[in-house]
Fold this sequence. Notes:
Mean pLDDT: 92
Largest sheet: none
Number of domains: 1
Structural class: mainly alpha
Number of strands: 0
Strand content: under 5%
Amino acid sequence: MWSHRHWEDSVAKLHPDDQLFFSHLDRVCGTLRIDSTLAELSVYLATAVDWMRSEYDMQL
């Protein structure tokens, strides 16, 4: 499937700093998979946005 190919390609293109961010996010929220539920995706995204917002606020 094309979706699996895009998933694998995006993981392969991650910068090492981003890999660290996502590995920490995976430990906290659970690994996001291509077949994750909408609820799991929502928690994952909300957590990621919260972390990025906090990091942005600290830089101001």
